[in-house]
Amino acid sequence: MSFQFDLTSWQTVGLVIDYAIKIIAIGFVPEGRRPSSSTAWLLVILLLPFVGLPLFLLMGSPYINRRRHRIQQEALEEINKKQTSIPDRPEDTVIDDELDSMIRLNRCLTGLPAVTGSNHGLLPDYERSIETMAAAVDEAEQYVNVEIYITSWDDTTDVFFRALERAVARGVKVRLLFDQVGSWKYPGYKQLGKRLDAIGVDWHLMLPLQPWRWRFRRPDLRNHRKMLIIDGKRAFMGSQNMIDSSYLTKKNVKEGRHWVDIMVELTGPVVSAMDVVFAVDWYLESDELLGAAERPQNPALPTHNKSDVNVLQLVPSGPGYRSEPNLRLFNSIIHHAKERLILCSPYFIPDESMMEAVTSACFRGVDVELYVNEQGDQFMVSHAQSSYYQALLEAGVKIYRYPAPAVLHSKFMLADPHAEAGGGAVGAMGSSNMDMRSFGLNYEVTLMMARGNLIQQLTDLTEDYKQRSTLLTLEEWNERGIVRRYIDNIMRLTSALQ
């Protein structure tokens, strides 16, 4: 009798805890969260409370490390304070009212105004891009700041690291930030720190998981930015990581899978904005404040070729920002489109607001083109993405799939690219995908283009992608099997667990 009573008691306690978890979750999980995300988390917690709750506490909390949040807010206040006298955009530029409002939005959210910058060209060739960045490092005189999500010292990237080595040898200060979780699964990671120490590079991991050093945070956060800044005068940014285009896995090499990316080379005042973003990230990981005296506050803009001069605005985003600047920028561009909208992202998993914006653009007669991959490199993400294709195709979106085994990794958006400069054409490019992870969990950096030849270069690149891609039709998509539909829908739920 005693054993039966004890067992019943434990069952009662378990039942009470089970219901308590569910009741508490219903009241607290939806706070400050998208409806889709709330629904997904509640589904996990209600079905598997003893598994779902620990996962939510570990990965679903809306709060990041307090120190990081505090530093990000202090940095934003400092940026606003030091740049109050700087106008939202260059006063001598002609910008229509809608673009002007986007610039004001971005500045309100990030503190950074639109400035001028000279575009030295897109770098769509993977290996050539790395070689060009290495050549730029060889011209450095004061410092080199590198911040790249995935970093690996391999045969392809060796030319870049040797350039860093030569820079250190001639007295240039070289700093390197790379994401720990993003980099640790690739060959050579365990030796990377020692190799960097050997050549004199000052390096730090971004968002490290080091509980033994009291450095712990949400394990699903990433610093996804890709930037190279030289002497505060010259910079590169875009979608490319510092690793071989195959990402060095046996399966990729065997199948011939390789990544297709873009970087852009810039000079002029926009480089100072990139330095500001790097300085905040450097302080977060090193506790070292970078002095403003190290870099020019107003780097000169080359005037030898005025057609290269662009009006640009840097838009950093990430968990330290409370209002998802990249998502608001993307949605603003989508709503702005009148004739043509180009979306290019390897991972297109829109939230409700972006999905509505894209389909609304179709309904008002905008020619919408979405460039994605024929075969994704991540199973769950690929299926979550394709779960949106039915609604997109029915609305009239033209989905172009870049052929396997290549992985189209470029990330950019263009609205009305053939409109008159300053009169409607607008674009954005950078590290941010158009998915919920990039909106809420990744630290990203995006470059908005309000006028200039960079928009036309991205438009020309789009035509190249179109020629290589195949158009997915609604009829073809409707022929997919029931198993594919089921898997897509399951993976769609997991994409909302944020």
TrEMBL record:
EC number assigned by the record? 2.7.8.-
Enzyme kind, highest EC tier: transferase
Alphabetically, which GO biological process terms does the record hold? Answer: cardiolipin biosynthetic process
User: A GO CC term?
Assistant: plasma membrane
- InterPro entries (alphabetical): Cardiolipin_synthase (IPR022924), CLS_N (IPR027379), PLD-like_dom (IPR025202), PLipase_D/transphosphatidylase (IPR001736)
What GO molecular function terms would the record report? cardiolipin synthase activity
Q: Does the keyword Zinc-finger apply?
A: no
Entry annotated with the keyword Manganese: no
Task: Give the species this sequence originates from.
Answer: Corynebacterium gerontici
PANTHER family per record: CARDIOLIPIN SYNTHASE, PHOSPHOLIPASE D
Question: What top-level branch of life does the organism fall under?
Answer: Bacteria
Topology with respect to the bilayer = Multi-pass membrane protein
Name its cellular compartments: Cell membrane
Spell out the SUPFAM superfamilies in the cross-references.
Phospholipase D/nuclease
- Please report the stretch or stretches of sequence annotated as the PLD phosphodiesterase domain: 219-246, 404-438
User: Can you say what this protein is called?
Assistant: Cardiolipin synthase
Q: Which residues cross the membrane?
A: 12-29, 41-60
* Record keywords: Cell membrane, Lipid biosynthesis, Lipid metabolism, Membrane, Phospholipid biosynthesis, Phospholipid metabolism, Repeat, Transferase, Transmembrane, Transmembrane helix
